[in-house]
């Protein structure tokens, strides 16, 4: 039986996602389910590095934040997610109209939650291309311990 994400929790996470730096660069929630989070980014000139490709920092932020919110879908309601570590492999330069990221929980844990993310570049006239893969370890910390 597949676990379901409570609809109220889903709406809360979608609202909570769009704050601070991720909001500044334009990350948008596409969908959320138990153990899974999907995001998109409309590529703008401000996302580019010197050769015209999307800057690695944009990809890293997208992977980390999307994995973190995938972890939120399995975390306790009073838990806040923090990244313990992550690794990203850049497979090809990201370019096109849009980036799509799928973040997934590898194995739900009580306090340690390993995750993975795949980022694809999309363009209207070509197939989506996998441009980065990340693995991350997230931790769920009770909100009251962050004060």
From TrEMBL:
Superkingdom of origin: Bacteria
Residue span(s) of domain Thioesterase: 52-125
EC number: 3.1.2.20
The reaction(s) this protein catalyses: a long-chain fatty acyl-CoA + H2O = a long-chain fatty acid + CoA + H(+); a fatty acyl-CoA + H2O = a fatty acid + CoA + H(+); a medium-chain fatty acyl-CoA + H2O = a medium-chain fatty acid + CoA + H(+)
Gene Ontology terms for molecular function: fatty acyl-CoA hydrolase activity
Sorted UniProt keywords: Hydrolase
Matches recorded under Pfam families: 4HBT
CDD domains listed in its UniProt record: PaaI_thioesterase (cd03443)
Family assignment from sequence similarity: Belongs to the YigI thioesterase family.
Protein name, per record: Medium/long-chain acyl-CoA thioesterase YigI
Biological source species: Dethiosulfatarculus sandiegensis
């Amino acid at each position: 039986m597949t676990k379901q994400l409570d609809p109220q929790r889903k709406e809360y996470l979608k609202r909570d996602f769009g704050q601070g730096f991720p909001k500044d660069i334009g990350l948008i929630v596409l969908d959320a389910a138990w153990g899974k989070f999907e995001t998109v980014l409309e590529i703008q000139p401000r996302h580019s590095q010197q050769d015209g490709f999307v800057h690695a920092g944009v990809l890293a932020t997208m992977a980390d934040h999307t994995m973190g919110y995938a972890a939120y879908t399995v975390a306790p309601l009073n838990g806040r997610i923090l990244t313990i570590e992550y690794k990203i492999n850049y497979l090809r330069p990201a370019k096109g109209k849009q980036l799509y990221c799928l973040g997934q929980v590898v194995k739900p844990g009580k306090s340690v939650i390993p995750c993975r993310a795949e980022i694809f570049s999309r363009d209207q006239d070509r197939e989506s291309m996998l441009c980065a893969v990340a693995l991350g370890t997230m931790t769920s910390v009770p909100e009251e311990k962050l004060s």
